[in-house]
Amino acid sequence: MELFIHWHVNPTIPINFHYFTVQWYGLMWTLSIFGCFFLGRWILAKEHLSEEHLVLIIQYIFIGAIIGARLGQVFFYDRAKFMADPLEILRIWHGGLSSHGGVIGGCIGIYLFLRHHPQFNLVWLFDRVALIIYLPAALIRFGNLMNSELVGKETTVPWAFIFGDEKVARHPVVLYESICYFILLITVIMIYRKQGGKRPGFYTAFFFTFTFLIRFLLEFTKEPEQMVFGLISNTQLLSIPLILLGLILFIFTYRNKANQQTA
Length: 263
Description:
The protein is mainly alpha-helical. The protein has a domain at about 5-10 and about 20-55 and about 120-260. About 60% of the residues lie in helices and about 5% in strands. The chain has helices at about 25-45, 55-75, 80-85, 100-115, 120-130, 135-145, 175-195, 200-220, 235-260; strands spanning about 5, 160-165, 225-230, 230-235. The strands form 2 sheets. Strands 1-2 form a two-stranded parallel ribbon. A two-stranded antiparallel sheet has the order 3-4. β3 (about 225-230) and β4 form a beta hairpin. α1 runs antiparallel to α6 (about 135-145), α5 (about 120-130) packs across α8 and α6 (about 135-145) runs antiparallel to α7 (about 175-195). It is globular. The mean pLDDT is about 90.
């Protein structure tokens, strides 16, 4: 008896707005922005802080993330394609966003915000962004699923998806990733509700370590991209330094906490 899930979803939401259509992927981006705003308000209220700069922070991060994600796609994955037609870089509606590039761009956005608003603490801001960022990551991956893109390897597991008119069942990798990010979001929010920001740098370290560890492991179920030395994919190679960065940040976080307790 076949247990596979036949996935033939229209990426356009079946609602007639007369003048325009709405894509599921675009809706997920919109919900991401609103979700970040309301989570940010909750964090600021919990810490009895002003919401004055919240919208501006979100703008810096999202603009930086989108630019970084597009440039990451250019330099990490499709350099030859974009060199042949440089204007394709601007045609973002054609698709092609790198999550690794998006993280780098988002970090640059935070840096640029802090240059104009030095009253904010660098570690504090990175930690609060790290608390929120799993929500857009999960929603955007769900948008990838609605687009039937970034599919996994062929498999016979009963929860496998048959995408569109394909004849083979595949791992729904982006669904795995979306679920993992929702779990990480719930985990860090529970930790934050219990201990707040007692360990500066903890949530940033948590983000880099576990987010990119998940990316590294899930690549084994994904359709191979560019392989490095015939062993790991380009995405896995890009994930390794970010995992190491997270582990290093964990060491500094706990060392600083120990030094404060003995001081």
